[in-house]
Specification:
about 450 residues, alpha+beta, ten-stranded mixed sheet, five-stranded antiparallel sheet, 12 helices, about 30% strand
């Protein structure tokens, strides 16, 4: 093929589904990609898998597949996703069960790509943790998960087997998009400039709606039309690595040189050497040209040899977060909220043994987001009509974390006047760290199953 069209179906685990349906139905796509993982989401999936061997994949995976599958099969569109998260095999089995109940009138081939779960290799190699420069074994908290960022080569192995759906775990975000290019265009591992160009396209698409005005909109300086109907982007990619980014005319949002520039820089710390499992990409000479309404051509990306080691996302048990919130409104709202915070801190210390330095007290609306930095709200602004108190703490003991929630709720009848709308929660903390593994320590496998729908 000389050109393929890749559609962005999701940019994170909780992303909207209707733009993907719109693309699947009207986008004339060759591939629809669902990027659903962050470092915390795969670690959280591993925690769920520990209690339920059939869990651990993206909670919205089945809803996404169910919403688009009839359109993708009719159009000959292949689905590629890392929505397998911590359990690609269970995800493939669940998708197969879903499709088996539908009357699709054809056989669907599903590939599950495994091998990114490298906990055993991490324990054997015992590499240094990036953040602490100490071996994994020296970390005081329990290791819960270790998932390597696998590249496009593992996904290409799946695509070669004439599948309709590819479900991977911790595949690198741009690799989800690069794999179809390698598969269709026959790019090789030494085609560094092409792999760099393809990685740039994948990076632009991986956050879906961010390229079409989401996380970009700012009323006045950067107006985005139809934000409530924001559509997701696609890319027409040619065999020479050039591409034109676009979106459906009927969808909301916009796609411009400026939206592309902002997304290009998103999460890229070194444009000259953006490290991925596939390539050391160079985005420093990327150029964007507006070629029409919601159409932007991208050129100039390149690359050099891929890294010898793969990044591994590590999840450690990190205690429990307890949180409570309550609102105060009317005269002296800020003063009452401050008093309420003082009451909670004192009671947590004296009754529950929670040290004050383990707690964070925020008055939302009074500069809490800036934490006292220059420009945060001062007392000269004048009285506020309403303030929301938030008390939180990351604690080793679940009972103490629950006490934070409990004591904030207790302010209803044990604190200042007029508190309302109390909410609280207790959640387990998974602390995310990173390490590196030699590439040869990571082995991927493709598992194929067929289901008659």
């Amino acid at each position: 093929m000389e050109q393929i069209r890749l559609g962005a179906g999701a940019g994170f685990a909780g992303d909207r589904i209707d733009p993907a349906v719109e693309l699947a139905q009207h986008g004339e796509l060759d591939y629809l990609i669902f990027e659903c993982l962050g470092e915390r989401t795969v670690a959280a999936g591993q925690v769920r898998r520990r209690t339920d061997p059939g869990a651990g994949y993206d909670p919205l995976l089945l809803a996404r597949i169910d919403a688009v599958i009839e359109h993708t099969l009719a159009a000959g569109t292949t689905i590629v996703t890392n929505g397998g998260s911590a359990n690609p095999l269970a995800a493939a089995n669940a998708v197969a069960a879903l499709l088996g109940e539908k009357r699709l009138g054809r056989t669907v081939r599903i590939a599950a790509v495994t091998g990114d779960d490298v906990e055993a290799a991490i324990r054997e190699v015992d590499p240094l943790v990036w953040e602490t420069d100490a071996p994994v074994s020296a970390h005081p908290d329990e290791l819960l998960s270790a998932n390597a960022y696998i590249g496009a080569d593992a996904l290409v192995d799946a695509l070669k087997q004439d599948v309709d759906i590819v479900i991977a775990g911790r595949a690198s975000d741009p690799s989800l998009y690069l794999a179809p290019m390698i598969h269709e265009f026959g790019w090789g591992p030494c085609d560094h400039a092409l792999l760099g160009a393809g990685t740039c396209v994948g990076h632009l698409l991986e956050c879906a709606g961010q390229l079409t005005g989401g996380y970009f909109a700012d009323p006045g300086p950067k107006d985005v039309p139809g934000l409530a109907r924001l559509g997701f982007p696609f890319a027409d990619v040619s065999a020479d690595g050039t591409a034109v980014m676009g979106k459906l005319e009927r969808s909301g949002g916009l796609l411009t040189v400026q939206t592309c520039r902002e997304q290009l820089l998103y999460e890229v710390h070194e444009p000259h050497a953006y490290l991925t499992p596939d390539i050391t990409a160079d985005f420093s000479r990327v150029s964007f040209t507006q070629t029409g309404p919601d159409r932007v051509a991208v050129t100039g990306a390149s690359g050099r040899e891929r890294p010898d080691q793969l990044k591994v996302s590590l999840g450690f048990r990190g205690g429990w977060t307890g949180e409570g919130q309550i609102s105060y409104a009317g005269p002296r709202a800020e003063e009452r909220a401050r008093l309420a915070g003082d009451v909670v801190v004192e009671r947590l210390a004296h009754v529950h043994g929670v040290p004050e330095d383990r707690l964070t007290v925020e008055l939302i609306g009074t500069g809490s987001a800036f934490r006292g930095a220059p420009g945060s709200r001062g007392s000269d602004v004048g009285p506020l009509p309403e303030v929301r108190l938030r008390v939180s703490g990351v604690l080793d003991d679940r009972a103490q974390a629950d006490a934070v929630r409990w004591e904030v709720e207790s302010l209803y009848t044990n604190g200042p006047a007029g508190g309302g709308g109390a909410r609280g929660s207790v959640t387990e903390v998974v602390a995310i760290r990173a390490a590196s593994l030699p590439r040869e320590a990571v082995t991927t496998t493709v598992h194929i199953q067929e289901v008659r729908g």
